[in-house]
Amino acid sequence: MVNYIIKRIAMAVITIFAVATVTFFVMNLVPGGPFMSEKAVSPQAQAALNEKYGLDKPLSEQYTTYIKDLLHGNLGLSVKQRGRTVNMIIETKFPVSARIGGMAILTAVLIGVPLGSIAAFKRKTAVDNIIIIFSTCGIAVPSFVVCTILMYVLSLKLGLLPTYGLASWKNYIMPVMALAFYPSSYIARLMRSSMLDVMGQDYMRTARAKGLSQIVSIFKHALRNAILPVVTYLGPLLAYTVTGSFIVEKIFTIPGLGTEFIGSITGRDYPLIMGTTVFLASLMVVMNVLVDIAYKLIDPRINLK
Amino acid sequence: MSNNKISLQLNVEDFLPASDAEKERLTVMQRSVGFWKDGVRRLKKNKISMISLVVIILIFFLSFIVPGIYPYSYEHQIRGSENLAPMQYSQTEMNAMETGEHVFPHILGTDNLGRDYAIRVMMGSRVSLMVGLIASGIILFIGSLYGSVAGFFGGWVDMIMMRIVDMIYTVPDILIIILLSVAFDQPLKALSQKAGFQWIQVVGVNLISIFVVFALLYWVGMARIVRSQILILKEQEYVTAARALGASSGHIIKKHLLTNCIGTLIVTTTLQIPSSIFTESFLSFLGLGVAAPMPSLGSLASAALNGLQSYPHRLFAPALAISVIILSFNLLGDGLRDAFDPKLRD
After folding, report:
1. Could you read off the pLDDT of B267-307 as tens digits, one per residue?
2. Distance from C-alpha of B314 to C-alpha of A228, rounded to nearest angstrom
């Protein structure tokens, strides 16, 4: 177990390093630079700016400097947002995205897992069919459609909720609903099929035969086994969602990390692109390792090698 | 028959040669049911998949054939008929009708530039479908090749190839798409000036970079699925037999392994189509998709967002279209999975 975790962490570090390297060179290979689009900047000023941010040095030198700084946890200075470090930007924007994303995932699990389980227990009944229809439609609707329809109905027609910003708790309702829509449908489907699988297992019959009530056998045996596929799905999903959904943040004008990321790419803010990418990649890799460890805790039969 | 106790009591007639009529009765009349026939038969039984297949055919008809005979074109701006509501006529059109001329109704109204909205939604579906089909084709090709090579050779090759897959999985796709569309902008525009490459202008630089991104990034899911199938299949006896007969690795992969996971390939590709359409609409919504005036369902929805208060139907039409397309492909994919590859049920 310990060996396995060490191996996985070593792998994770290599992956993050590789992603950083690839991003760095792809980003620099693309013609143009951070100061190209600003017409007001004179050539002298541009050269000065390039010098200030170290963009005049050869690429290999820039790369080694960047990696050295990265190892010290220093993500550099934002080129476009003068005077702010990338660390500062991530520190202020990430909590905003993480709060909405976290709430959305929690909502999705709280809706998806029970719905999927109920559908499996009430198999081939009207309840099951209704849940199947809803979850099938749920994974067919893109998030921007959900966002805009929610906005149209709840804000423009009924006037219940504000459309933008994050001033009060009311602002969180629509983004969280929009973000939770797809995952909750997906989790419900996953949960239903894995629950059906588990219910056919011998140990479920044994549990009932030894006198456990239906409820206890479900919570003690079925749920724990059936939730494994959901855990697998949750790892990467969590990493993606807490770092901000571009669409949802754009539509509801939420100042989160997703908006920052898109802005950094279109504005060619090199350090910010690198920072957000490395941050997202690290989160992703960490989540995958955590999922594997969670596997072992949930299902001791799984042999980690 | 005598009751001789030591006789074997055999009937000589039982040992006569069989007549032709008797032989006929013993031949199995039913032809053996092949893989395809069996799958299609099971698919036909599935009502939901048949309905979604009909819906898909209808959508293809609407987006590929109807625009050819439709009286309006997707880029034609009719002056004086801006912002019409569905089934509404502009003043000039009403005047024309009074003189006895036949004016085709704007079923979904017009947009802010006076373009018929129904044809724009149809063209948008066409773009989305094209993206879905082409991208899935690219993914099928690269993913199955990569996955089968990794799975077949195993060991170090597999290890390195799958780590590359993990890495690609981690790179944010938006980053690559935006960077590529910037990188391709100049070279492709220069290329589109040359003879024989004018189509680039029509398709748009962004769309080409989307395809490249699909080719670069999105095959990883397919590669993983194919690999896991190949890992099981390569232990089968017929692979050992083929190898003993001197078949090369390429021949075994092509002839034995990939043909045996054809069910998986069909199902995964069908389910890839809606997810490609999903991605394209998402990118078009962010303004990274097809180039104007070419509409896509995502860009139509994005443009409709500004006038949501006054013209909600402009959002609902493309939103409904995209949801129906994705839903019917998903349902068809599920049906295909049950029919061709029951093992793959999630």
Report:
1. 888 888 888 888 888 778 777 777 667 788 888 888 887 77
2. 42
Residues 6+ apart with CB under 8 A from B121: B108, B295, B297, B300, B317, B318, B321
- CA-based nearest residue to B167, from B100, B107, B216, B207: B216
Phi, psi of B110 (to 5 degrees): -130, 165
Note whether B171 contacts A281, CB cutoff 8 Å: yes
Q: Give the Cα separation of B262 and B268 in Å (integer).
A: 10
Chain B contact present for A22, CB below 8 A: yes
**Distance, in angstroms, between A51 CA and closest chain B CA?**
23
Give buried/exposed letters for A225-234 (b at 16+ CB in 10 A, else e). bbbbbbbbbb
According to DSSP, the residues that pair with A85 across neighbouring strands are A77
Element (H, E) at B279: helix B262-285
Contacts with A145 from chain B: Cβ below 8 Å: 301, 319, 322-323
- The confidence score (pLDDT) of residue A108 equals 93
pTM higher than the cut 0.90: no
Report the residue from A15, A152, A266 with minimal CB separation from B170: A15
Computed over its alpha carbons, how large is the radius of gyration of chain B?
29
